[in-house]
């Protein structure tokens, strides 16, 4: 019994890490929105949002690219605080993504709903506004 050794069941040892991001925050509501979004991720222990520095610090066992992707679902301009990580991220994304085709396309036809809206008469617009509920 003395010669027995405890071996972990997983191959790699996972440790908690800090992920620092630069996120544009316009109000304290943005701060709440970011905290709520990150609270849905598993493995995150704490989220610290510094409104004055526009900095979000996440501590936990997580993939930093998943954290950034989650934050970008709310703030598209979010990026890592460390510029070296941003360069690595841009290099990995640039070959796989192609720019979207220019709008309008060759075969672009406006929908029927748009043509109907344009054809409303003044009488119809008056009915819409008189029937609307206002306080």
From TrEMBL:
Which of UniProt's keywords are assigned here? Metal-binding
Looking at the record, the residues that make up the HMA domain are: 16-83
What the entry lists under InterPro entries is as follows: HMA_dom, HMA_dom_sf
> Matching Pfam families, A to Z?
HMA
SUPFAM superfamilies xrefs: HMA, heavy metal-associated domain
Q: Which GO terms describe its molecular function?
A: metal ion binding
PANTHER family, per the entry: COPPER TRANSPORT PROTEIN ATOX1-RELATED, HEAVY METAL TRANSPORT_DETOXIFICATION SUPERFAMILY PROTEIN
- Name listed for the protein in its UniProt record: HMA domain-containing protein
- What is the organism field in this record? Glycine soja
